[in-house]
Amino acid sequence: MPDHSQTDAASLVDEVVEKYSDELVDLRRDLHAHPELSWTESRTTDRIVEHLDGTGWSLTRLDGGGVVADIGEGRGLVALRADLDALPIDDLTNDPWSSTVPGVAHACGHDVHTSGLVGAGLALAAVHEHGLLPGRVRLLFQPAEEVMPGGALHLIRAGALDGVQHVFGLHCDPSLDVGRVGMREGPITGAADHLSVRLAGKGGHTSRPHLTEDLTFAIGKLITELPAILSRRLDPRAGVSVVWGMVRAGSAPNVIPHAGLVAGTVRMLDAVAWADAEHLVRQLITQIVSPYGVTAEVTYQRGVPPVVNGSASTRVLGEAVERVLGPHGHVSTQQSLGGEDFGWYLDKVPGAMARLGTRSPGGPTYDLHQGNLRVDERATMIGARVLAESAVTALRG
C-alpha cells in the first residue's frame, strides 16, 4: 500500500514554506543587511531564536554563537546544518538590503543557508505537530565556517552529533540556476590547509652569489619544486594542489636578501592523503632548500577535511530533491578544491552536502566570496523544502 503519511508530510512542508515565504525573504534580507563575522554571530543567533521559539523546537544557544534545536521522538535522528558567518569584504550590490556594516558582507550565501534552515524548521515543526514526523530532527545553526579549522568542531565538541545517523547541508552555487540542485557522490570539496615558509640565509651582492646563500634562488626552487614533488609522492587520485598566493623577498635588484616569505594553500580531495600531507610537506621543504644553505621555518595550519558524500545519504538527498523539484531538479556537479568545514561532520557520521542553485535563469553569473554576489531569493524557499524533505526521507529509511 502507498505511504500516504509521506505524501501528507511533503504537502505540509510545501504548504508551510509557502505560508512563510515572505517572512523568510525578509529574514534573508535582514541577515544580509546585518552581517556578522566568525564567532561574533550574536544578532544572527537572536533572529534564529525569535523565529523558532514557541514552534515546538527545543532550542539551545551555544557559547560563541549558534543554536542547536531538537524536535520529535523515536530512535532515528537526522541533523540539518546551516552556517551563519559573513566575510570581511565590502558589499558592492547597492541593493536596499545591502550590508550596513562597513567591510563585512554575506558574499558566500550564508544568509540564504540560515533563512532556508529556519524555513525547514518551521515546516518540520508543523509535520511533527500533525504526527507525521517519523523520528527526531536536529538543526545545527553553526558559527564560524569561514575560518580554519571551522566552527563545526565547536558544535561537535558540544555534542551536536551525539546520536545523529545522517547530516545534510546545502551550499549556494551562483553558477547554477535557481530550481536546480547540484549533487555528487564521493568527494565534492577538498581539504584545505594554509602553508607559510620563512626563509633565512646569508645575503650579499648579486655580483658575488657564491659568497651568499642565494635565498632568492632557493625561493624559486621551493615554489616550483614543492608542487611538482608532491604530485609524485602522493597518489595522483588525491588531486593534490599547492598554490602560492604570496612571495616576498628583497628590495633592490642588485642585492641578495637575507630573509624571505612564501605562503599559499595545500588542497586535496582524499582524506588519507590529507592525513599524511603535513609531515611530507615539511620534509620536502627542508630537502629542497638545504643544498643552498638556507634555513626554513615552516608554519603548517591544518584546515578542514574534504567533504565526502556518502552513497546512502546522497541517495536520500536526491530523493528529497526529486520530491521538491521533480526528476530533473538535481544535476551532476563538479568537484571543487574549496574548503568547507562540513567535512568535519562527515568525518564522524554519514551525510551529504549539495549545491543550491541561486542564479536567476538568463541572468548574470556571480562568484562566491565576491562583494557583488546576488542571489535569486526563491532559492531560500527551495532550500527550506529540500532540507525538510531530506530529514523526513532519511527518517523513513
Taking all Cα atoms into account, the compactness measure Rg is 24 Å
Proportion of beta-strand residues: 25-35%
Question: What is the 3D shape?
Answer: elongated
Number of E-type strands: 16
Structure commentary:
The protein is an alpha/beta fold and 397 residues long. The chain folds into 2 domains: 278 residues, 3-Layer(aba) Sandwich (Aminopeptidase); 114 residues, Alpha-Beta Plaits (2-Layer Sandwich), CATH 3.30.70. Helices cover 36% and strands 25% of the residues. It contains 10 helices and 16 strands. A hairpin with a 5-residue loop joins strand 1 and strand 2. Helix 1 packs antiparallel against helix 10. The protein is elongated and about 85 Å long.
Quick overview:
The protein is an alpha/beta fold. Helix content is 36%, strand content 25%.
